[in-house]
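Run log // design_07
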């Protein structure tokens, strides 16, 4: 295992959309590992390192609320994106304020979320250079977390739900209000990028014990 960190991630609202609920969005009960990884990578990521989530602590009660969000009815096709990458002169443009495309859709979102995420990173041998060391990257992530810096604003599933991220160092870990065992069902674990031509989602059966999801024990399936 590489060097590890513990961060606290909080927000007023969160929406981690279940893949089977794409039109009327409904969030997972808790933050998926891929979303937790994305928040950490928004603060610090380099090609030479790979982040992995070890544990997720759910500190608050799981509460939902219903909201209505403005969305667009269309999306870019893969062919149009490939054409733009190849220099197609036709502009690739989709206006979110176009009344013809704008739609209001219901969403079931999480409210008052508060998580502790334990994560570690490892060097990627085929991409790490001679100056890439675990100590170097570890100190850089600590420095960015302490200063509140990030590459892109971390969010809780969607851009309008911002995430507050805090490094937990010497202080004792907060304890979850949740007790007992809870079966959260099948959740997205992450995407397998080993084959760029065939990116595959991986899922796991999430079990939460006293508010903690131990991902080291999770069995991933494709």
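design_07 sequence
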């Amino acid at each position: 295992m590489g060097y590890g960190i513990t961060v606290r991630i909080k927000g007023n609202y969160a929406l981690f959309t279940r893949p089977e609920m794409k039109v009327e969005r409904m969030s997972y009960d808790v933050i998926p590992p891929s979303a937790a990884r994305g928040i950490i990578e928004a603060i610090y990521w380099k090609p030479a390192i790979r982040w992995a989530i070890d544990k997720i602590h759910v500190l608050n009660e799981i509460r939902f609320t219903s909201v209505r969000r403005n969305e667009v009815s269309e999306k870019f096709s893969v062919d149009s994106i490939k054409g733009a990458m190849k220099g197609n002169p036709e502009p690739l443009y989709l206006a979110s304020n176009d009344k013809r495309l704008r739609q209001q859709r219901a969403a079931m979102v999480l409210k008052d979320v508060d998580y502790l995420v334990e994560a570690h990173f490892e060097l990627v041998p085929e991409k790490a250079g001679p100056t890439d060391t675990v100590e170097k990257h570890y100190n850089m992530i600590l420095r960015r977390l302490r200063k509140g810096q990030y590459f892109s604003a971390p969010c809780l599933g969607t851009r309008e739900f911002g995430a507050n991220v805090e490094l937990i160092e010497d202080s004792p870990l907060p304890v979850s209000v949740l007790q007992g065992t809870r079966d959260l069902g099948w959740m997205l674990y992450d995407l397998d990028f080993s084959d760029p031509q065939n990116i595959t989602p991986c899922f796991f059966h999430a079990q939460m014990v006293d508010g903690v999801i131990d991902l080291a024990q999770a069995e991933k399936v494709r």
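The chain has two domains: 4-66+108-221, 70-104.
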